[in-house]
Design brief:
299 residues; Lysozyme; 3 domains; two-stranded antiparallel ribbon; 9 helices; 48% helix
């Protein structure tokens, strides 16, 4: 590719020079000196323009030679700087440096029990089903969803390839949204400590409000859900009590936090216990269980 172009350039130059001198010679006998000199000057300008074009093309060709590291020995003076191979990017995600804190109400013992149950504590675990990965058996869509919200640098990373601390961090984020619900088989075997105030001596003792919420919000919620009626019944679910629990949801929350309330009809529970259960559900899922009535102050 290079030599034919160079011969072509030299050939064009020779033809142009011959043309200049040929025309100069032929015009010497038939043209006036001034007209002949003007013609020669015009041809010299054309030759100069052509040479400039060739030089520009050659410079562009040399740029491409250096850019793609091809035939660089033909570049006059060599390429600027030595060609360095493009480094292969490190696709291993960097572990987040900040320590992740355990979700409120959970213990390291519980999380270790969960890891042992799901993957025998193996952070590089791959379930034979080809769907669940890592110590917590994440599915990729769930992992990506949480990563977009909390750790964007982990989007698209296979959970088993993430650092253990990042897998823990993502599991904690999932817990903050759904509690132990994503791991029902393993969660049932966890050593769940009885939260303070779980079995009050006085069932009429109301629990403290969840952090970040106000009494006005909870009053507004029960007025919207049940008009403040702790014995309210809606046949649609059926939904029961002031906070309109499904019995299955009530039993699930009670089984985790307040075993003595499991199996109790929400309508028959003391108002304080209904609040206690609603606060526990809020701690696991936020305002999501009450999408309509909590819309005004949902965070």
């Amino acid at each position: 590719m290079v030599r034919p172009q160079r011969w072509l350039r030299y050939g064009m130059l020779a033809v142009a020079v011959a043309l200049v001198f040929g025309m100069a010679g032929s015009s010497a006998g038939g043209q006036a000196p001034d007209e002949r000199d003007a013609r020669i000057s015009e041809l010299e300008t054309l030759v100069a323009d052509r040479d400039a074009l060739i030089a520009a093309q050659e410079a562009l060709l040399n740029d491409y030679r250096c850019l793609f590291n091809v035939d660089t020995q033909l570049v006059p003076g060599g390429c600027a700087g030595s060609a360095q191979p493009t480094p292969t990017p490190d696709t291993t995600p960097e572990e987040t440096t900040s320590d992740s804190e355990l979700p409120d109400g959970t213990t390291e013992e519980q999380w270790e029990q969960l890891r042992q149950c799901t993957s025998n504590g193996n952070y590089q675990y791959s379930n034979p089903n080809g769907i669940n990965f890592g110590a917590y058996e994440f599915r990729q869509p769930t992992w990506n969803y949480l990563a977009r919200l909390h750790n964007p640098q982990l989007v698209g990373v296979n959970p088993r390839d993430a650092a253990p601390a990042d897998q823990d961090r993502m599991a904690y984020a999932l817990y903050e949204e759904r509690g132990w619900q994503p791991c029902p088989e393993c969660a049932s075997s966890l050593s769940l400590p009885t939260p303070q105030g779980t079995t009050p001596t006085d069932p009429n003792t109301f629990p403290p409000l969840p952090a970040g919420t106000t009494e006005a919000q909870w009053d507004q919620l029960i007025r919207c859900e049940s008009q403040g009626n702790y014995q309210a019944y809606s046949s649609v679910g059926p939904f029961l009590g002031a906070f309109q629990f499904l019995q299955s949801t009530w039993n699930w929350v009670a089984g985790i936090h307040y075993p003595h309330l499991e199996g109790v009809d929400p309508r028959n529970a003391a108002p304080a216990d209904q609040h206690r259960m609603a606060y526990a559900l809020y701690g696991m899922q936020g305002w999501r269980p009450w999408p309509v009535c909590a819309a005004a102050f949902r965070q």
